């Protein structure tokens, strides 16, 4: 590895706090809470897309077409995520991590609140679904900039031997936000169906404004990343981070994305499509299904925590490979459990998918992506990998699975086979990526 003398001199003076220090606890809390609030809003939309939007914004359509349209608006948000990662990553690499995180949080809170206030199509016609799509794009841009910055603020403050664990706080924030979003929808879903569709579903969206205010108070107190502050490589200042990522690290982007798609394929299938499938086709109780989903998200947090801790000991690759191989083996059995139409089998399927498989892959994923790129382009590179993974893995999955089920005549075996193929590809991609646990993050080249 080649080092810049300026970086070498600066990194000698870095103030890297212990994970038990008050400063580091505040940083980790900011990473976790900020990510949780952003993903509360993003997953709240996904849950509503499964249960509400096809009945409120896509009326006068066949049920299967309406749910497909609802899932299409979900995909639009995922399409915007890589762009958000690029834009916010650019400014995060040029100006610093902290400012862009505050901007992304405000964007998300405002967009979600307006979604909660949108009139239905029955009142304002096509304006409603068009506005919904626009606001979903804003959500996608905002969450596209959130994860990379939240993860890097924790990772770049942490001591080398605890980077995986520190970075996982942003990863734990995602499923924690999913728990909050799911429980919020579950609470209002106990209303009579006409009231739930008329105004009940709006309450969790409007409440996000208060959560964002809390997150901003915490985030404003966090100091800038020491690795970013130490970066004094003037020769790179005028270069565009995205161009450096794509020209100098194309393999890192491609392999990292293929690995990350595995986790997000599970998320797209089990937390969006499967919810709609078991409620609409399986006739399961909506509130019970949402409560099971919340428990599954909580299990994701637990497994993220465990996997991240082990990745600091034995490496990112072996820990993530356990989750990838488990996903390939369990794909068809999980789909069989869904098709049986029993709520207890649905619970087991969801717990295996979101706990064991997604949690183990996702736990080290923050450190895994960060260690693929040097500091000067790390925000852009890590965000691009993460957001491409989520867009390709989760953004289109509900629509693709819906099509595969129709193609299979109602059977889920085609969907299960597609799931397994994604995981086999991820395993092959992982084999071509070097272990980054002991990488020097202050190095000019990695």
UniProtKB/TrEMBL annotation:
Which residues span the membrane? 27-53, 65-88, 100-118, 124-144, 165-187, 199-218, 253-276, 288-307, 319-338, 344-373, 385-406, 412-430
**What top-level branch of life does the organism fall under?**
Bacteria
Q: Where in the numbering of this chain does the Major facilitator superfamily (MFS) profile domain appear?
A: 27-434
InterPro entries referenced in this protein's UniProt entry, alphabetically: MFS, MFS_dom, MFS_trans_sf, Sugar_transporter_CS
Membrane topology, from the record: Multi-pass membrane protein
**Where is it predominantly found?**
membrane
Record's SUPFAM superfamilies? MFS general substrate transporter
| Cellular location(s) | Cell membrane
Keywords attached to this Swiss-Prot or TrEMBL record, sorted alphabetically, are: Cell membrane, Membrane, Transmembrane, Transmembrane helix, Transport
| Entry-linked Pfam families | MFS_1
PANTHER family reported in the protein's UniProt record: SHIKIMATE TRANSPORTER
Q: What is this protein called?
A: MFS family permease
